[in-house]
UniProtKB/TrEMBL annotation:
GO terms for molecular function: guanyl-nucleotide exchange factor activity; small GTPase binding; sodium channel regulator activity; transmembrane transporter binding. This is Ran guanine nucleotide release factor. One of its GO terms (cellular component) is nucleus. It holds the Pfam family Mog1. It comes from Scomber scombrus (Atlantic mackerel). PANTHER family: RAN GUANINE NUCLEOTIDE RELEASE FACTOR (PTHR15837). Belongs to the MOG1 family. InterPro entries: Mog1 (IPR007681), Mog1/PsbP_a/b/a-sand (IPR016123). Coiled coil: none annotated. GO terms for biological process: heart contraction; protein import into nucleus; regulation of membrane depolarization. It comes from the Eukaryota. Keywords: Guanine-nucleotide releasing factor, Protein transport, Transport. The lineage of its organism: Eukaryota, Metazoa, Chordata, Craniata, Vertebrata.
Length: 193
């Protein structure tokens, strides 16, 4: 697969090779910098404040497929302390056609776009972040695979992230995120065991 810059993108092993996906350019594996939960793979852009999280979460069988992405988005908003009125908004939820996905084992897949006003490291300053969320439902493994692309839109001058904002060199795009979603591949179902 060719990326926008003309490079051939390589699939990156996730969770010890149980899954793989094409991760965008200029990424840093955050697990090399700090402790990350076993059910997450976290990548940060080297020059922007963007991040990608691939997460294995419990399949929520009480949530209908078309509502599941919103369910997880609101769960993230709660974790981000962004549940105040007006602090989060869902702008679209669309199904991802299985014919365009490498992860054929999923029962359904969804892409949600929304915004959340979040603070970093418990700071008072709040930043507006566009969240692109990909959800792959795997009821046979009691797992939902959740992929979150955090794309800050406006950074408070008081935020610790403000210093990074002047260096917007080749930020990740929605196309990079779409490529990641389409390239996600399961190699070892024992990962969910």
């Amino acid at each position: 697969m060719q990326s926008a810059g003309g490079r051939a993108d390589q699939a990156h092993p996730l969770f010890g090779g149980g899954l793989s996906a094409v991760i965008p350019h200029s990424c840093t594996d955050v697990s090399e910098l700090r402790e990350i939960p076993d059910n997450q793979e976290v990548f940060a852009h080297a020059h922007t404040d963007q991040s990608l999280i691939v997460e294995l979460v419990e399949y929520q069988d009480q949530v209908a497929n078309q509502d599941a992405a919103r369910y997880h988005f609101e769960d993230i908003a709660g974790s981000n302390k962004a549940l105040d009125p007006g602090a989060f908004e869902v702008t679209s939820v669309v199904p991802l056609p299985k014919s365009e996905l490498s992860l054929s084992e999923c029962s359904s897949a969804w892409r949600l776009t929304g915004t959340q006003c979040v603070s970093k490291f418990n700071e008072e300053a709040r930043n507006t972040v566009t969240l692109h969320l990909g959800l792959f439902r795997l009821p046979q493994f009691s797992t939902d695979v959740l992929i979150t692309f955090n794309d800050p839109q406006s950074i408070s001058p008081d935020s610790s992230s403000a210093a990074a904002m002047g260096t917007h060199r080749e930020p990740w795009t929605v196309q990079d995120f779409q490529c990641l979603l389409q390239s996600l591949t399961l190699h070892n179902p024992g990962l969910f065991g």
